[in-house]
Amino acid sequence: MTKMNLDRRNFLKGGIAVGAAAAMGSMLAACAPQGSAQGSASAVDDADAASVSQVGGGYANPDGIGIPVEPNSTEDVDVVVVGSGMGGFTASMLVKEQMPDAHVVMLEKLNALGGNTNFAEGGAGFLNMTPEEARKSVQADVIQRNFVVDGSLFYAMRTQQGDCADWLFGKHQVAIKDYGSGQPLYEGGTGASAIATLTPQAEDLGVDIRMESRAFALVLSDEYTVTGIQYKDVDGNVVQLNAKAVVIASGGMNTNPELLKYYSNVDLGKVMPLGTGQDGDGHLMVEQTAHGRTGLQTIDGFFAGIGTADDPCGFNSDLNTGAGFQFSSVFVNQYGNRFYDESFNFNTGSQLFFTTIPSVILSQSQAFSIFDDSYVDRWEKGEWQNGHNGFDSATKQGEPLKVRGDLESVKDKDWFYQADTIEELGKAIAADVPSFDVDNFVATIDAYNAAANGAEDEWGKPQEFIWPLETAPFYAAKAGVNAYNTNGGIHINTHAQVVDPVGKPITGLYASGIATAGWDSQVYGGGTNQPVALWCSCMAALHIVENCLGGTVSDNWMGDVPMTDILGEDYQNANPLG
């Protein structure tokens, strides 16, 4: 086979231009810029695909994401939504409600619906803000995130979030409840209840839900025009869906460390991923277009965890909760010193304790959680401050943690240390970490015990959280980050259209949720998962209806049940969770 050098534009025209059916032409024109080509069917030979692929620079890409092939079959549909979490369900259902005759396909690559929404706890910003309220809120959002986020997206979301909440919680009766965590949560504390509520409604609307169907490549006529998508079905057949619009709501790349290392600037050896199916597929597909490379991923950390990326203690382990989640936790770094201001409580100033601690831990070459047998006793008596999540913290205070069984299971782990004295514990750590100064460590713990007995604490920790370290055996565990997802990458405008580096929309392509950029900096700020997915997908659906399908959005698309009927007239917005 004769090979030729292909630049990005030639490749897009000749290799990725797997065509849409001619019957789609008139409606697609309403969604496409005037004069855009519709393309003809062709594909890249599998043997040459990797050599011309523009996606995931450096990534081995074993699954060929972002590389179109010759399909086994082709269908003409109206809209394809990739992902079945909150973003996927919202986009699919809202389009179908406004355009009942539209053929809307929702693709889910796993054999269960919901994605990481099943593990999320929060709902949304429940009320629309006035312009003045939104400006003040956005100022706080931007300051909290070090001025590197998109204030225009936050402003748009804050002024429209109530309509989206009315649609989800009022019109579609997704249940929420105030458990005392500071913000109403999904009923039962996780979004699994929301997915269970939405699934039969989506089916009744006629959303074409296809499970075990992994989307892997966009269909383009040129780098600014998306005309469909390809996916592999449960039998491995490649199906091409020619569509007028595609919504990427496929989540982050948390469970694909081989890809994430090209999009993150932290030590992934300390990042312990949670969730399922977060492989970065949507990011790589978007890179087929003029958008180009997707950006830096924020690690959405939740407290500290113990263990390593390859061998985590486990998010649901009570030992992990005790040693990593508490205000009373004690951390030292690779030199045997405490290393951060511990005067703050759960929510101090513009930052949240549970989201800043992961970045503090990642700032060090290595961190260790230090505890002794008295801590284990106290945890097992129900003395702790923070549970696995806001729901547990609010509803399970005082319940005993079951820690000793976990201790037995980790005693032989490379990341776990036990000794009869603090000095011996320090020597055990120093045998693995040459920079660890045993004398510093002993002095650090002596000073900590003095603070527990009333002396001033150098790091400002409130007295109530300074538990003495005096009861053998003494324990240390390597500390890292419980990362329940990544956030960022795909740039969008306020219609959730994917855009190129100068803001020009990619026709027919939208993105939603944590795959989108502009919401977080190095530190996860809270409230940028579920609320963003809900808002992005509402905006995408409304834009698709009027600009890609030729319809008209109803004035009361959000329904007739306002959130004030659910939460009460006196309810005021708080920081969204999830």
Automatic annotation (TrEMBL):
<dbReference type="InterPro" id="IPR006311">
    <property type="entry name" value="TAT_signal"/>
</dbReference>
<feature type="domain" description="FAD-dependent oxidoreductase 2 FAD-binding">
    <location>
        <begin position="78"/>
        <end position="520"/>
    </location>
</feature>
<protein>
    <submittedName>
        <fullName>FAD-binding dehydrogenase</fullName>
    </submittedName>
</protein>
<dbReference type="InterPro" id="IPR050315">
    <property type="entry name" value="FAD-oxidoreductase_2"/>
</dbReference>
<keyword id="KW-0560">Oxidoreductase</keyword>
<feature type="signal peptide">
    <location>
        <begin position="1"/>
        <end position="29"/>
    </location>
</feature>
<dbReference type="Pfam" id="PF00890">
    <property type="entry name" value="FAD_binding_2"/>
</dbReference>
<keyword id="KW-0732">Signal</keyword>
<dbReference type="InterPro" id="IPR027477">
    <property type="entry name" value="Succ_DH/fumarate_Rdtase_cat_sf"/>
</dbReference>
<dbReference type="Pfam" id="PF10518">
    <property type="entry name" value="TAT_signal"/>
</dbReference>
<keyword id="KW-0285">Flavoprotein</keyword>
<dbReference type="InterPro" id="IPR019546">
    <property type="entry name" value="TAT_signal_bac_arc"/>
</dbReference>
<dbReference type="GO" id="GO:0033765">
    <property type="term" value="F:steroid dehydrogenase activity, acting on the CH-CH group of donors"/>
</dbReference>
<keyword id="KW-0274">FAD</keyword>
<dbReference type="InterPro" id="IPR036188">
    <property type="entry name" value="FAD/NAD-bd_sf"/>
</dbReference>
<dbReference type="InterPro" id="IPR003953">
    <property type="entry name" value="FAD-dep_OxRdtase_2_FAD-bd"/>
</dbReference>
